[in-house]
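Q: Structure tokens for this one, please.
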Amino acid sequence: MNINNEIYEVVIIRKDNKNIYIRVKEDLKIYVTCPKKISEKYIEDLLNKSKYSISKMIDKQKNKKYKEEKNIGYYLGNKIDIVFCNIVNEPKLEENRLLVRNKKELDKWYKKRCEIDFKILLDNIYNIIEEKIPYPKIKLRKMKSRWGVCNRKDNSITLNIELIKYEQYIINYVIVHELVHFIHFNHSIKFWNTVGKYYPNYKVARKKLKE
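A: Here is the predicted structure, written as tokens:
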């Protein structure tokens, strides 16, 4: 059926009814429940006479579908409006507004951004390290008490996914911190001197992470 220049599927359900009911459901199909002996021509005429009310029912369902639930989130230190909206096929970031279907897709989006952004920051920092260290694999994990972990056995650093919500300078500090552990596997004076060599304001970043 053509409603406002859009085609909608009509589903006819025949029952032992005395009356005819027209409904539009969430799938935006037009459902007609009618007596078994009613002809399709009669149904077609009725639908054409009811176009206005059907159009209103379609608008009502569309408004439900477009209903947005807003939440505040952060990405690289910037506040963003997270909008749960079931009409988007994949997350879409528009300025300070992220459209995403649900919480599961939001978590996947954050993880994907970690994979991309952390890799770029790691490369930038690794290229300025003068000491000879292995190029590490990046692992991602949500951690309650740590922002990063260095594992010299498998040449990897694990970064907390929650870091993606912080400013870039914070992430840079954590990456420097973990890379320096390939040089000094402790928190000695030499360790902190080396961290300061590549990140002079590390105390500012540490204080921010403790807040």
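A few notes: The chain has two domains: 2-65, 102-210. Residues 103-126 form the longest helix (24 residues).
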